[in-house]
Design goal:
It is a single chain. By secondary structure, this protein is of the alpha+beta class. It is about 25% helix and about 30% strand. Strand 6 (about 120-130) and strand 7 form a beta hairpin. It is globular. This is L,D-transpeptidase. Keywords: Signal.
Length: about 180
């Protein structure tokens, strides 16, 4: 019986060692030029790119508008003077509108999103092929699943950002979607 206990402890210890060595919060030293080293360099590059994305893109139109950058997953609220008053990250859904200029067509204080989630501050700016594109904030703070099979046009932001967009974007406000 003691032999089985010792063997079991040995297996548990080995499995714990393997888990600790491969866990993301226990990084291992990477040799220069190794795959892990290259991955870290790519992560650093992504971080640099992300910092750049907070600046209002030059080719995003003029005047008062909402700018939605698909690749950056970011929105800017731009005043009449052409200066961004707020920017924030968003969570896109499986469907995205084509780049172009749209206008807010409707607003709704709350309801259920096309993905079945309770939402507030819904600002709709386009519909195409049965998909309605708009900004909203999930009451529970969740973001849409970009890999979901159902094509929805929900662009989700935090509740605070949703409130700011709601105050900014009245019906008729320009929405510029860029790649």
């Amino acid at each position: 019986m003691a032999g089985l206990t010792v063997a079991a402890l040995g297996v548990v210890g080995f499995l714990g060692y393997q888990a600790a060595a491969t866990a993301p919060d226990h990084p291992t030293q990477a040799r220069p030029g190794s795959h892990a080293s290259q991955s870290k360099e790519k992560d650093k590059d992504r971080g640099r790119q992300k910092k750049k994305s907070t600046a209002l893109p030059a080719a995003s139109g003029t005047g008062e508008r909402v700018v939605y950058a698909l690749d950056d997953k970011r929105v800017w609220l731009v005043g009449a003077d052409g200066k961004a008053t707020r920017t924030f990250e968003v969570g896109p859904s499986p469907a995205s509108p084509d780049p172009g200029t749209y206008a807010v067509t409707s607003r709704n204080e709350g309801g259920v999103g096309s993905d079945g989630v309770q939402v507030e501050h819904v600002v709709v700016f386009h519909s195409e092929g049965g998909v309605v594109f708009g900004f909203s904030a999930a009451v529970d703070g969740s973001m849409p699943d970009p890999n979901a099979r159902k094509r929805t046009g929900a662009v989700r932001e935090s509740r605070a950002d949703g409130s700011a967009l709601w105050e900014f974007a009245e019906v008729g406000t320009k929405v510029v979607v860029i790649p």
